[in-house]
């Protein structure tokens, strides 16, 4: 097979699959360069505080459990009475910052959220020990308060929505997305042939899900492009007014564009919803904390919006699988279901009748929990309790921080300096707007080539080579793996660099390798 045929085969794969192929090539690259994978979004930092606190609660939990039964490694269950006092006796806040954090956490839960201290400690302890099914299965009682406070503080920019928001923690944002799609379909809120709008370029799973036979949805591009710094334009959002569009899925800040919707775009969404009060919006705000003064769509149109958040990126916790779905207690999903015809309602009543006595009154979010375990296994649904407590502890690191959350500021500074190094190395202007999360950047190889060697050379690159050729050579010759932007619905020639997953010093090297390879293409251009 010729290189060109091989590349055409490659172009049929998804962006993540192409990236896997590139990894193999890069590991044995021709120049024997160090192998650099800037393709993945997995961060190379972690939050230590919450993890150490988790370990500390397990230690206490094991000791606490031995109070009721203690026969070798076999211990009993914990008891509520006096548990907070025993925890405080167990901890040494004077010598351990982590122990002090746990004491502060209990005080915060009590003073700010008005949660009983013993009950809070018991939920944490039993949660990490994991000796009971998650009850209530949707989310542990006090955990919901803490996670809501975290989401409000980090994503809502001052809007007070914590008290009126229901949460469902899930196995990462990925499971949240799957559950949402599934329940929208099961509850007939979206059906075959419905138009669904998505803001492209977008995280590939979103592009791929609508193409699955299950959904057969039509994509409507709400393209944000480089010309506008990847900022979505109001005129594009106007497309949402199309009466055939039932739902809008947004990734905000976007991936790979990395830009958050600005206030003008948020205002536009508000106007659209005023005209189309039954519009369904799903917003994935995984990167929200990487933008100063971020504001989610959920805080602008809470009635219409399902919010997805994941702890994966900020806390370096992809292996934990920690995500959450947030839905307003008053919402369009319940409203639409309650307005269904008798016939449609009856069908759904049958579906959930084994779960609850009055299925017609079952909230959409609870239907999602039931659907996540195929209805029949609703009684053993819910995210594992240790995972829920890990979400609580990550949330508390933020809630207990003073004025500025130093951890969040540090994570932003990291991606920021890598972004600066990359752009400086490429000798091009970065995007300094405040909506830029800088978690990813899109580098347009054709534009870069044109800027350095002129438009004839750019034409040569575009015409003589497959669009993955540059990516392919960057891997197999130079040992640098980037992600193909086309797979995300972006323009040919755009490569995604992740500022999250390589040591700082590598970003300058990546820039150098990109320029070196462009130069090699230019040599062959001159020799034609
Ligand atoms: C990384 C990422 C997620 C996170 O997924 P997890 O399953 O929580 O690891 C969700 N959405 C987008 C757009 C992402 O880039």
Give me the secondary-structure topology.
Blueprint: H1 3-10, H2 15-27, E1 36-37, H3 48-65, E2 70-71, E3 74-75, H4 83-90, H5 97-111, H6 117-129, H7 141-155, E4 165-171, H8 172-186, E5 195-198, H9 204-208, E6 218-221, H10 234-237, E7 245-251, H11 263-275, E8 280-284, E9 305-310, E10 322-328, H12 332-338, H13 342-352, H14 364-372, H15 385-399, H16 406-426, E11 440-444, H17 445-453, H18 455-464, H19 469-476, E12 480-481, E13 483-484, E14 494-498, H20 506-526
Parallel strand pairs: 1-12, 5-6, 5-7, 7-8, 8-9
Antiparallel strand pairs: 2-3, 4-10, 9-10, 11-14, 13-14
Helix pairs in contact: 2-19, 3-5, 3-6, 3-15, 4-6, 6-15, 7-15, 8-14, 16-20, 17-18
The structure holds pyridoxal-5'-phosphate.
Structural account:
The protein has helices spanning 3-10, 15-27, 48-65, 83-90, 97-111, 117-129, 141-155, 172-186, 204-208, 234-237, 263-275, 332-338, 342-352, 364-372, 385-399, 406-426, 445-453, 455-464, 469-476, 506-526, and strands at 36-37, 70-71, 74-75, 165-171, 195-198, 218-221, 245-251, 280-284, 305-310, 322-328, 440-444, 480-481, 483-484, 494-498. Helix 3 (48-65) crosses helix 15, helix 7 packs across helix 15 and helix 8 packs across helix 14 (364-372). It is an alpha/beta fold and 528 residues long. It has a 7-stranded mixed sheet, sandwiched between helices. Strands 11-14-13 form a 3-stranded antiparallel sheet. A two-stranded parallel sheet has the order 1-12. The structure holds pyridoxal-5'-phosphate. The site of pyridoxal-5'-phosphate has 14 residues, from helix 8. Its cofactor is pyridoxal 5'-phosphate.
């Amino acid at each position: 097979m010729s290189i060109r045929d091989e590349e055409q085969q490659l172009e049929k794969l998804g962006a993540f699959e192409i990236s896997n192929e590139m990894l193999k090539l890069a590991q044995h690259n021709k120049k024997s360069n160090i192998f650099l994978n800037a393709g993945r979004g997995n961060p190379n930092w972690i939050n230590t505080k919450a993890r150490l606190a988790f370990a500390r609660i397990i230690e206490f939990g094991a000791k606490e459990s031995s109070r009721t039964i203690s026969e070798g490694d076999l211990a009993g269950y914990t008891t509520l009475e006096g548990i907070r006092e025993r925890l405080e006796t167990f901890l040494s806040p004077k010598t351990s910052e982590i122990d002090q954090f746990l004491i502060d956490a209990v005080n915060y839960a009590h003073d700010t959220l008005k949660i009983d201290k013993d009950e809070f400690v018991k939920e944490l302890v039993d949660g990490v020990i994991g000796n009971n099914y998650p009850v209530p299965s949707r989310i542990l009682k006090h955990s919901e308060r803490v996670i809501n406070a975290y989401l409000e503080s980090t994503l809502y920019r001052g809007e007070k929505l914590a008290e009126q928001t229901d949460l469902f923690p899930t196995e990462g944002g990925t499971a949240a997305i799957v559950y949402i799609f599934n329940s929208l379909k099961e509850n007939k809120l979206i059906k075959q042939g419905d138009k669904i709008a998505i803001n492209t370029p977008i995280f590939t799973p979103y592009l791929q899900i609508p193409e699955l036979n299950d959904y057969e949805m039509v994509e409507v591009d709400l393209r944000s492009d480089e010309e506008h710094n990847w900022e979505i334009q109001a005129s594009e959002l106007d497309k949402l007014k199309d009466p055939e569009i039932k739902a809008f899925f947004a990734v905000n800040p976007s991936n790979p564009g990395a830009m958050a919707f600005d206030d003008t775009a948020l205002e536009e969404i508000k106007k659209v919803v005023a005209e189309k009060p039954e519009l369904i919006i799903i917003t994935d705000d995984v990167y929200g904390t990487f933008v100063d003064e971020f504001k989610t769509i959920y805080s602008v149109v809470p009635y219409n919006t399902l919010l997805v958040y994941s702890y994966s990126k900020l806390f370096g916790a992809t292996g934990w699988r920690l995500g959450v779905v947030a839905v307003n207690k008053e919402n369009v999903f319940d409203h639409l279901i309650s307005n269904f015809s008798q016939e449609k309602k009856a069908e759904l009543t049958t579906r959930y009748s084994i779960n609850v006595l009055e299925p017609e009154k079952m909230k959409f979010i609870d239907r999602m929990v039931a659907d996540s375990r195929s209805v029949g296994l609703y009684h053993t649904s819910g995210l594992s309790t240790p995972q829920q407590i890990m979400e609580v502890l990550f949330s508390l690191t933020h809630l207990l921080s003073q004025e500025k959350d130093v951890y969040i500021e540090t994570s932003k500074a990291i991606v920021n300096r890598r972004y600066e190094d990359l752009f400086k190395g490429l000798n091009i202007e970065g995007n300094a707007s405040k909506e830029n999360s800088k978690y990813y950047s899109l580098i347009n190889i054709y534009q870069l080539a044109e800027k350095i060697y002129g438009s004839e050379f750019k034409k040569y690159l575009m015409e003589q080579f497959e669009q993955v050729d540059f990516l392919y050579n960057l891997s197999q010759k130079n040992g640098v793996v980037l992600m193909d932007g086309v797979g995300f619905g972006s323009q040919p020639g755009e490569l995604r660099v992740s500022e999250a997953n390589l040591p700082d010093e590598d970003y300058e090297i990546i820039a150098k390798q990109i320029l070196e390879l462009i130069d090699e293409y230019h040599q062959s251009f001159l020799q034609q």
